[in-house]
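Annotated sample (chain length 155).
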Amino acid sequence: MKLTKKTNSFTLSEILVVLVISSIVIASAFLMLSMVQKQFRTVQTNMNNKYEVNFIERLLWQDFNSQHSISFQKEKNLLTLTNNIDTITYSFFDNFTLRNIDTLPIQIIKTELFLEGEKTESGKIDAIKITTSPFYGNRKIFIYTSKDATFYMNQ
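Output written by the structure step:
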């Protein structure tokens, strides 16, 4: 009598099929991971840009409404805000903006100046319209000084 004990096992072709399918699933998972990481970086960049624009808008609002004299020198692209205690300057360059000695990484491509509702080129102003670069969404920021009733009564 011959005793043959057959052991259950996978054939070589079955193992190869499993390896090929596993490698396809793993490759697609890595591809999806890289796509999600790229999307995350894009969202993070957009949020940082939005934060920078909101930050400079907040600073300008605060500075415009806490200073007595506001002037702009077109040839130097320099905004000067002064009061009895302090002087704040904004210098607009091609790739960044300086506020006193602080660097704000925002590109401003266009500035429009206003004095009592009329456009002006330079000198004393009471409002400014700033347009950011396309990298920052071509956002338009309009900043003006708040004037109370005493300002109009004293004129």
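Annotation: The chain has one domain: 13-153.
Annotation: The chain has a mean pLDDT of 88.
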